[in-house]
Structures are given as structure tokens and as C-alpha cells.
């Protein structure tokens, strides 16, 4: 057993050393992504669908899952705010009426009409309607090459076309953040430079002779450096989420578990002190 552990440790050490040597000449900027930032994930999803989904698939991710994780919360929050305004007889804005229409699954034009319809709906039906509204929003804003919201995200470009134009099939990016790391993706997307010797007139400092064109050139030209970097960070953040969607739940649950264990530790320590009073100062040992 000890021999197997020794061999495994050596192999792990060699793997890490080879990786460090292989990447020692590439400086990677810190992406500083945060998958708990919903606005960043939403912007990253929209940017990816507009600029990347034509060539790259996310075959392990479905549109419906993106809607549920990234957009449903905003639609539910908008409905709750509209319902509060309705209950308090506050003036309803256009967004409030839209939120109430989503919950009712029917257009409403005024507060009385909305209140009357809501009274006839159960909470389960309202939740189902809000989920349906989320699906419709996803279809309208993010789905360009699929018919069903439950479909996986598949690139528009065919494999034959990709091989003819790029010489290879663009990789599926479902697990790119886990295999390459967010720092690599963030630096790669910002490292294109002009090179007339390449077919698309650009090259990349991180991945030399990359077949990919600089698809974000329009963003780079139309925005400030800070804004462009934030857009790239949002795309990277979205790919980090795609590589492990359960991370949203896992991280949140992790904080709760650590908090529970911390409180439990304090209670256990106080209980230990109480129990050991009899041992330290009781009949088994005289008080000093």
C-alpha cells in the first residue's frame, strides 16, 4: 500500500512539473471571475450566444438550464415587486404590468384586471407561468439555431463547413474552464494581434497559430479597454458556470455547512468544558 502511494505521489509531482514547464513561458492574467454574480453570467451568456455559438457548441448544457439558473430569479423578483406594488395600491409601471402578465400568462393592462386574475390562480400555477415566461425570454434572446428550449447548445456551423474553412472542427467548450482554467480563457480572448501571414490576419500570444479569428474585434473597437475586459471576463465567467452548473449550489451550500460547523464547534466546546468540570474539580480530583 505504501509503495502504491509513493508511486502515485511521484506521478502527480511529475505531472505538475511538466505542466508548469509547459506553461512557464506564458503569462496568464487573473480572470477574477465570480459565478455568484448573476449580472455577469447573464451578460456572458448573451455575448457567448452572439459571438461564439456559431462555431462552438456547449453540448453538455441546455437552454432551459441557463434560463432556470440565470434568468428565472430576476423574473420571479420582478413579479414579487409588482405584487407588492399592487397590494399597496402603488402606481404600476410598464415593467410591473409585464411581470404580472408573466405570472398570469395573459396580458394585463391595469391593476384591477391583474388583481382579479391573480385571485383565481394558485401559487403552483403562477410558478409554472413564470417558468414558462423564462423559457419564452430564452427563445427570443438566446436561441438562434434551436427549436426547443430543452435542446443542448449546438454550434450553427456544420463539421464539414468548419473543416473546409478552418481546417479543423472548433472544440466543444462545455468543459473548457475546467480543462484550461478561467485565467487561460480570459488571457486567450484578449491576446489576439495582427499577423498578415495567418489566414484570418490575426494570431494569438497564448495559442500560437490558432485557427480561430478574432471574433470579438468589434467589441474591442467599439468599447473602452475596461469595458472590453469586463465583457471578456463575463464570457469567461459564463464558461466557468457551464463547466460545472452545480457549483452555484455547491458553493452556497458550502458556506452554510461551514457556518453550521463553526456554530456546532462552539457549542461542542462549551459542552466539553461543562462535562470536564466534574473530572477536573469533582470528587476524582481536588481543586487546586
UniProtKB/TrEMBL annotation:
GO terms for molecular function: electron transfer activity; heme binding; metal ion binding. Keywords: Heme, Iron, Membrane, Metal-binding, Signal, Transmembrane, Transmembrane helix. Heme c binds at residues 52, 55-56, 212. It comes from the Bacteria. Binds 1 heme c group covalently per subunit. GO terms for cellular component: membrane. The chain crosses the membrane at residues 253-271. Residues 39-243 form the Cytochrome c domain. Residues 1-22 form the signal peptide. The keyword Signal applies. Pfam families: Cytochrom_C1 (PF02167). Its main location: membrane. InterPro entries: Cyt_c-like_dom, Cyt_c-like_dom_sf, Cyt_c1. It is found in: Membrane. The keyword Metal-binding applies. Its cofactor is heme c. This is Ubiquinol-cytochrome c reductase cytochrome c1subunit. The lineage of its organism: Bacteria, Pseudomonadati, Pseudomonadota, Gammaproteobacteria, sulfur-oxidizing symbionts.
Amino acid at each position: 500500500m505504501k509503495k502504491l502511494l509513493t508511486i502515485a505521489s511521484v506521478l502527480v509531482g511529475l505531472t505538475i512539473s511538466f505542466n508548469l514547464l509547459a506553461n512557464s513561458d506564458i503569462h496568464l492574467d487573473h480572470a477574477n471571475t465570480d459565478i455568484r454574480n448573476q449580472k455577469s453570467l447573464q451578460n456572458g451568456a448573451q455575448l457567448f450566444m452572439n459571438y461564439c455559438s456559431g462555431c462552438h457548441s456547449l453540448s453538455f448544457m441546455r437552454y432551459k438550464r441557463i434560463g432556470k439558473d440565470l434568468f428565472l430569479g430576476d423574473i420571479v423578483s420582478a413579479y414579487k415587486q409588482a405584487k407588492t406594488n399592487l397590494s399597496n395600491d402603488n402606481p404600476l409601471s410598464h415593467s410591473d404590468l409585464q411581470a404580472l402578465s408573466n405570472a398570469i400568462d395573459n396580458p394585463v393592462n391595469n391593476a384591477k384586471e391583474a388583481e382579479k386574475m391573480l385571485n383565481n390562480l394558485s401559487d403552483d400555477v403562477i410558478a409554472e407561468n413564470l417558468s414558462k415566461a423564462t423559457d419564452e425570454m430564452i427563445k427570443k434572446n438566446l436561441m438562434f439555431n434551436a427549436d426547443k428550449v430543452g435542446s443542448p447548445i449546438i454550434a450553427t456551423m456544420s463539421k464539414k463547413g468548419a473543416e473546409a474553412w478552418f481546417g479543423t472542427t472548433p472544440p466543444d467548450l462545455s468543459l473548457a474552464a475546467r480543462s484550461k482554467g478561467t485565467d487561460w480563457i480570459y488571457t486567450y480572448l484578449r491576446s489576439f494581434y495582427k499577423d498578415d501571414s495567418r489566414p484570418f490576419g490575426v494570431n494569438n500570444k497564448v495559442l500560437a497559430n490558432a485557427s480561430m479569428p478574432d471574433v470579438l474585434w468589434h467589441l474591442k473597437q467599439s468599447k473602452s479597454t475596461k469595458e472590453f475586459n469586463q465583457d471578456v471576463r463575463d464570457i469567461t465567467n459564463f464558461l466557468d458556470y457551464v463547466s460545472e452548473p452545480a457549483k452555484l449550489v455547491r458553493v452556497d451550500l458550502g458556506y452554510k455547512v461551514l457556518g453550521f460547523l463553526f456554530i456546532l464547534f462552539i457549542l461542542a466546546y462549551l459542552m466539553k468544558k461543562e462535562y470536564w468540570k466534574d473530572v477536573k474539580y469533582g470528587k476524582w480530583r481536588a481543586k487546586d
